[in-house]
Structures are given as C-alpha cells and as structure tokens.
Amino acid sequence: MYTELEEESRKTFMLAILIGLTIGILLPMQTSVNSRLRQVVGSPFVASFLSFTVGTIFLSLLLLLTGQSFGFESSVIREGPGWMWIGGLLGVLFLTGNILLFPRLGSVQTVIMPIFGQILMGLLIDHFGWFNSVEHPITALRLFGVVLVLLGVIGTVALSDWLNRRRGKLVVSMETDTENLNLWRLFGIFTGMMSATQTAINGYLGTVLESALKGALVSFVVGTMALLLILLVSRQPVPLGQLKGQPWWIWLGGIIGALFIGGNVLIVPIVGTGIAVIIVIVGLLCGSLLIDRFGWFGAKKNPVTGVQLVSLIVMVLGIVLIRLS
Q: Which residue, of 103, 133, 168, 237, is most buried by count of CB atoms within 10 Å of its CB?
C-alpha cells in the first residue's frame, strides 16, 4: 500500500508520463505541418520563423488567459546562470541540423542519430546533475533499459525501413559524400545532444521563473529572434501572400511546438531530463506511426507492421527498467 505522499508522487509521475507521450505524439504532426508550410513559402527558415512566431503569440495569449504577467524579478537576470537563456538557440540549431542532415543521411539516419544523441545527453545530464538537474546515477539496470529503448528505435525506424526496401515500397535519395558520412553522423548525434540540453535548460528556466508557460515563452522569443536575424542577414523575404487559400491547419505547427516546449518545461523537474527525453521519443515514434497509418496532413499512407509494434513494446519495457533503477 502507498502512503498518501507516495500515492501523490506516483500520480504526478504518471501524469508527467502522459504529458510526455502526448507532446511526443504531436511532434511528428508538427513536422508534417511545417513541411507543408515550407513547400508553400519555399524556405525552411521562413517556415520555421512563421512557426516560431505563431507559437510565441499562442504562449503570450495563454499567459494572459491564465492571469500571469510577462515580467519577472530582475534578480533572475542578475543571479541566474547565463546558459538558462539559450534554450531557444539550441532549438533553432536542432531544427537547422535536421534540414542539413536529411539530404545527406536519408530519412532513417536523420531520425536515429539525433535520437541516440538525445538519449546519451539525457543520461549524462541526469548522472552528473548538469544544468541544476536532480542527479540520477547511471546503473547497470538503467543502461540495460537504454539499450532496450535504442533497440526499439532501431526496430521501429531502421528495420521497418529495410523491410520496405526489400518489398520495393520505399526509395530514399541521398546526396551523401561517402568520405564525410561519419562526420555527418556525428553531427546528427551532436544535434540530438543539443536538443536534450535544451530540454534540461528550459526545465530549469521554468522552475526559476515559477511558470512553465513563461519558460516556454522565453525559449520561443529567443528562437524567433534568432530566426529573424537569419532572415535579415540572408535577405530572405516572408511571402505571406502565398499563404492565401492554404488549409487552416498549416498554422498549427507553431501551436504544437509551443505545447511541446511547454510540456517539456513542465515534466523535466518531475521525471528528470533522461526519462523525459525517452518518454517523448516513444511518443514521437507512436505519432509517426499514426501519421503513416492514417495519412494525416497529406502524408502517404503506410501500414503499421508487426515489427514496429513489437519495437514499441520493447521501448516501453526499457522505460520501465529505467524508472525502476
């Protein structure tokens, strides 16, 4: 039997898992929406800027609706570490990294390499307590759980991709320079590590500001300003006229991104960076399978295979082992 405190802690943890899975499921939907937006405006940076802008407006409205102010104590700036403000920059880096990786590594490795980096960095942050995170030392059971998660990722993405290739259902073109292939793979792992770092930083920022919404808004404002600077330097226009007549859901990418960042800010202090990253990854892969299965947002329909379902079960078992360790 649980004590009242233990029962409350268990419910909070389960709620955090539910939030993590939900925002993870939403993430590939954001990717599909932003891909359509990119096709319309002709530039990944313009599409990202519009998405970040919508997310910033959405979070600002949420702050107003919940009665929270936009300001915070000046002591937060004077006394807080400088790194807690760069989460938005790391988000832009991760986004840009995926844009660069796809034509060089192909769709499968563009998913797997960053995920490997996210899990690796999440465990290191938890083990050493970086970015003011609660320490969760790496144990043998925890490592075994991570191995199961990685095997599940490989089964969900790479093995299914290989089976589809064998059946002649999938053709992916790659502009890969064989000599530099490993460097691009390392870069993919690096972008994933930066994504996990962003998760930890934003979680800490939300705690310092005493508001997950404020933490997410700061991250979005920083990211929006960074993308605006990129557009100004590269002199890329924002062709708003081309957006007329497009489906209404083309604007959902920024809202989903805001929910994703806000959800991470909320759950990291509860479950730790490592588990938060892994839970979101499981949700991400589930969301990808749902989009493939039902062809949402204009995506091509692909049946979910038994290999993918088994792989998801393996990942869930890995999370359970990490939680128990």
A: 133
CA pair distance 186, 121, nearest whole angstrom: 13
Q: What is the C-alpha separation between 181 and 294, in angstroms, rounded?
A: 34
The encoded tokens of residue 311 equal 């792989």
Q: Are 277 and 89 in contact, with CB atoms under 8 Å apart?
A: no
Length of the chain (residues): 325
H helices present in the chain, as ranges:
4-41, 44-65, 74-79, 87-128, 140-154, 160-166, 181-208, 212-234, 252-271, 273-294, 306-324
pTM, to two decimals = 0.79
Give the C-alpha separation, 200 to 81, whole Å.
13
Tell me the three state secondary structure of residue 32.
Answer: helix
Q: By the 8 A CB rule, do 208 and 76 touch?
A: yes
Q: Match 């292939």 to its residue by tokens.
A: 181
How far apart are alpha carbons 161 and 156 in whole angstroms?
Answer: 8
* 12-53 tens-digit pLDDT: 888 999 999 999 888 878 777 877 888 888 888 888 899 899
- Residue bearing tokens 């899975």: 21
CA distance 222 to 237: 20
